[in-house]
Amino acid sequence: MLPDLPYRTKAGEPLLEVDHIDDHAGGGRDHPAAMIALCPNCHSNKTHGAERAALTERLRKVAAERHATWAASLT
């Protein structure tokens, strides 16, 4: 189960931003398996934070696991 997300839209839905795990402008793939939804603060931290390289590696693993789970559910 995902933790409760701190930011919400006016409709009460989680406020998320889609992020290319590897910067799209730097050659990152434009494919769902290479993207992840992040809250605005996590997105900013991943893009500009001091620990962005470590966070990018962690998110790459999370995205790969979730994509594999999703793909397996289709069979």
Automatic annotation (TrEMBL):
GO molecular function, one term: endonuclease activity
Keywords: Endonuclease, Hydrolase, Nuclease
Pfam families to which the protein is assigned, alphabetical: HNH
Name of the protein in question: HNH endonuclease signature motif containing protein
UniProt xrefs under CDD domains: HNHc (cd00085)
Species this protein is from: Streptomyces bullii
Family annotation (InterPro entries): HNH (IPR002711), HNH_nuc (IPR003615)
Domain HNH: 12-48
